[in-house]
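User: Here's a structure from my thesis project, written as structure tokens. My advisor, Dr. K., wants to see whether a designed sequence matches the one we expressed. Can you design one independently, without my sequence as a hint?
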């Protein structure tokens, strides 16, 4: 019997949800260093959430396109850094909708995703709503392990634990 999880064509991937927070860089560095050490890959997910107001459809579409352009530029800049540091070429995924729903859908669609890496904000306001939801409410039923990286770790500290 062949175990599909041990197939040579499968590649362990580390998934990182990318946003514009400073701690996001910690999650990316951790995931990339781990992937580099184990011969895995990295997926960078950006989710463009719908604007708070829907009064003018044309304005909403312009805002969505600007957000997509910004996301593409950010992902390209991150990819250049990742390739320079680890020689890994990350995959990009940009989706529209709820961050939690799109994250769960991507994990379900790609069986090579083995670990979700998130970074917790060092601010006293808590780790953030996505971490609270996934680690708190869903922790016993989540499909893959979740690694939460403290957002205040230095590059040297991150390198030491990867």
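Assistant: Designed independently from the structure alone:
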């Amino acid at each position: 019997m062949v175990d599909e999880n041990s197939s040579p064509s499968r590649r362990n991937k580390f998934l990182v949800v990318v946003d514009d927070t400073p701690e996001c860089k910690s999650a990316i560095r951790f995931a990339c260093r781990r992937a580099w050490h184990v011969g895995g890959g990295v997926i960078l997910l950006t989710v463009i959430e719908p604007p708070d107001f829907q009064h003018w459809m044309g304005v909403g579409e312009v805002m969505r396109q600007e957000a997509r352009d910004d996301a593409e530029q950010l992902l390209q800049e991150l990819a250049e850094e990742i390739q320079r540091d680890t020689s890994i070429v990350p995959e990009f995924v940009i989706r529209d909708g709820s961050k939690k729903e799109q994250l769960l859908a991507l994990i379900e669609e790609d069986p090579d995703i083995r670990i979700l890496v998130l970074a917790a904000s060092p601010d006293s306001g808590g780790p953030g709503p996505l971490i609270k939801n996934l680690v708190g409410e869903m922790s016993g039923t989540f499909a893959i392990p979740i690694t939460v990286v403290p957002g205040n770790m230095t590059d040297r500290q991150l390198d030491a634990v990867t």
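When you compare it with your expressed construct, this may help: The radius of gyration is 16 Å.
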